[in-house]
Amino acid sequence: MVIIMKPNGTQEQVDRVVERVKTVGLDVHLSVGEQCTLIGVIGDRTLLGETPLEAMPGVDRTAPITAPYKLSSRDFRQEDTVITANGVEIGGAEVVVMAGPCAVESTEQIIQIAKIVKDAGAKFLRGGAFKPRTGPYSFQGLGEKGLKMLAEAKAETGLGIITEVMTPTDVKLVAEYSDILQLGARNMQNFFLLKEVGAAGKPVMLKRGLSATIEEWLLAAEYILAGGNSNVMLCERGIRTFETHTRNTLDLNAVPAVKALSHLPVVVDPSHGTGLIHLVAPMSKAAVAAGADGLLIEVHHDPEHSLTGDSKQSLSPNQFAQLMGELKPLVAAIGREL
Ligand code: PEP
Ligand code: MN
Q1: Within the chain, how many helices (H) and strands (E) appear?
Q2: What does the pLDDT average to over 252-278?
Q3: What is the distance in A from the centroid of ligand 2 to the CA of 116?
Q4: Rounded to whole angstroms, how far apart are CA atoms 286 and 320?
Q5: 202-254 pLDDT per residue, tens
Q6: Ligand nearest to the CA of 209
Q7: Which of 120, 218, 236, 315 is the 20 to 30 Å CA partner of 60?
């Protein structure tokens, strides 16, 4: 349930309602909007007894949140969530581009690519130190050494770092080196990991599971929000369908659909979503037109020799710079910034 306070209500009235809800042992989540304050109440509302909350001073009305996810729902928070990471706002006017290699391979490689993507206008450097590979014999990433290389690239360029964390025990370590913790598609429903990043106090990007419905995805985000971390962005990265021409089927319906259901920022990954270089630019543009708040794009200075074999989807420096140039007028046409 959500308790909607009157637009001209006072802080004292909010405090009194919160106290009443808390005395019966229910959990309270405040959402302070420009117009009014919403008080989200999670749990069995019958505990509040018969006396209507509407009778309390400052309360306008109450409304049930019918979706199974609550804190991530638009009913709980009407305004878009804007997340600040490394001084950059995600979910605001800017379309934020995060780019870099599939995996961190060496200090030289990551610094070289960081400079390339920064010059073209990216705000975050992506690159996996812990790689969730489908097969056990594939390159698994450099682990902590890779994180240190990302830190060097950050020191060199000032770019924010987004990198994947795969296990609950690594969350503290990865959080030390990153500005955004990436939760990969294969871990979307790793509930222990979701709870751990919920407590990490760092922005999180939750990728959509390989065959997750939008509702399952938002419920996974709910775990992180319920754990006390409200800085969650979602990333559409393609889903498994019967189509085999592309690596995955990039579900761009999900962008406006999720934005209607939820206040959380939505990022699109056209690299893993298509798996094909020549589709990355058109789908990046389509994602921006559909309302994406950011793009996560694989870029490699020497795609043919990348260690993860994601060469079929990694843009070359020139291709990336060209895409960034082509995005500019499109972003301006929809009233956003790049
Ligand atoms: C990645 O972005 O590095 C990655 C592994 O993607 P996904 O989890 O979407 O497969
Ligand atoms: Mn990859």
Answers
A1: 10, 14
A2: 98
A3: 18
A4: 16
A5: 999 999 999 999 999 999 999 999 999 999 999 999 999 999 999 999 999 99
A6: 1
A7: 218
* Residue 16 pLDDT level (bands cut at 50, 70, 90): very high
69: its two tokens: 């996810």
Q: Which of 125, 180, 183 is nearest to 155 (CA)?
A: 125
Question: What confidence category does residue 9 fall into, taking pLDDT thresholds of 50, 70 and 90?
Answer: confident
Decide whether any atom of ligand 1 lies within 6 Å of the 184 Cβ. yes
Neighbour count for residue 323 (Cβ, 10 Å): 23
Q: Is the CB of 325 under 6 A from ligand 1?
A: no
Cβ–ligand 1 distance for 138 under 6 Å, the answer no
* Helix ranges (DSSP H) in 130-230: 144-157, 171-177, 191-198, 214-226
Q: Tell which one of 142, 233, 237 to mutate to probe ligand 1, the residue whose CB is within 8 A of the most ligand atoms.
A: 237
Q: Which amino acid belongs to residue 328?
A: K
- Do the Cβ atoms of 214 and 73 come closer than 8 Å? no
Q: Is 270 in the pocket of ligand 1 (CB under 6 A)?
A: no
As a 3-state breakdown, the chain gives helix, strand, coil percent values, each rounded to 5, of 40, 20, 40
207 beta partners? 235
Q: Which residues pair with 98 in a beta bridge?
A: 124, 296
Q: State which ligand 1 atom lies nearest to the alpha carbon of 186.
A: 8
Strand pairing partners for 267?
Answer: 235, 294
